[in-house]
Give the backbone structure.
Amino acid sequence: MKKPHKVLVIGGGAAGLVAAVAAGRNGAEVIVLERMDRVGKKILATGNGRCNLTNINIDLKRYHSSYPKFVKGVLNQFNLHQTLDFFEQMGIAYKIEDAGKVFPMSEQASSVLDVLRYELQLLKVQEECNAEVIKIQRKNNQFVLSLKDGRKITGDKVILATGGKSSPNLGSNGSGYELVIPFGHKLISPFPALVQLVLDAWFLKRLKGVKFDGKVSAVADNNVLQTEFGEVLFTEYGISGPPILQLSRKAGEILHQKKSRPYIFIDVFPDLSEDQIENMILSRFSYHPEKSIEFSFVGMMNKRLIPVILKEAGIEDLNKSCAQINAKERKNIVNILKNWQIPIKGTQSWMQSQVTAGGIDVRDIDPNTMESKLIPGLYFAGEIMDVDGDCGGFNLQWAWSSGYIAGEVAAKA
Ligand SMILES: Cc1cc2nc3c(=O)[nH]c(=O)nc-3n(C[C@H](O)[C@H](O)[C@H](O)COP(=O)(O)OP(=O)(O)OC[C@H]3O[C@@H](n4cnc5c(N)ncnc54)[C@H](O)[C@@H]3O)c2cc1C
């Protein structure tokens, strides 16, 4: 009988653990090498501890890569339904929430990690923690991995599932890129995505903690790149909240290219037209023409927002009465409320970002097998590749799909 392949999985995150299950199920002897003191730290942090494990609206449009065609085949080969079956058979009952987001019924990310580890135990997969791989070598048709602590581990196949550079406190520090660049793999310059935006504005300290449901757009060179709705939160460095994370991919790309300056446009009252807001202001002014312009907005918007909006509209004297406000000033206020334009200075750092845009160039990877076209026997899985998805379960789906294919093929090939 043919001796089983010995498959070495570098990285015990979402992609690596699923790859290890798939390789184990296909008869391989598998070792997972993880640099942290335990596997799956990032899985535990996903979905605010609830793990948004996929999305029922998986669509190519929700993924970004320099070569988007690569993504299609991978997501079809181990698709949404196979993913849901895979987890259900291991014990994860699931529920679907807003915008198609799928969560375990337990509402615990830890349950996802628990069932994966249980499956690995059944398959006798060996988990080696505190095992950071610092070098990959090819010797006599075998791979020799050098660990930071001096150990050397040999195997027939290697699956590289070391993630990107986002949230390095959870293990992924970009070290995986360095392992394959010496073999000729190219790196599409990575930048943080699904991350808060840093704004260039005088009022940030004053607005820290102010929240509202708004419409936000990322704009560059007078082109609207993307528009999102939802809860926006001002912070001392800039702006945060779910719609901002979604915009951050496009804004981050513009910043990374350094060709033009992106802006954020905020609509504070997306449900009202400019005319409706102006009429509302006029009637408020007519009830109490004696009120200061600042006080006249109390009850219509967050009190801390009022002086900032008025100053941005060019009104310096906030004690001026409503009766003293002329038509031009009133229109300026309406304009700021509907089209508040703020320059974006940057994004928050890798530490705050949820996903890495860019990564290993997928043109050197076979999308049917996830095998390197440059190093036979070496496979890629997950975020290490130049593929990232929107917020909403799309990134974990990428990790599960690419991980499963890599594990299955590595064991069988
Ligand atoms: C806070 C947070 C919340 C998120 N929530 C969601 C969500 O709800 N839904 C969703 O779809 N996506 C979410 N994401 C994104 C998603 O978690 C990632 O895209 C996904 O986990 C990537 O999986 P991966 O296995 O490729 O990489 P990772 O999960 O980053 O795993 C890589 C592993 O490799 C290890 N490693 C790295 N280098 C080495 C080395 N040299 N030697 C050995 N081991 C190494 C790391 O320690 C790590 O354990 C979230 C991300 C964050 C940070």
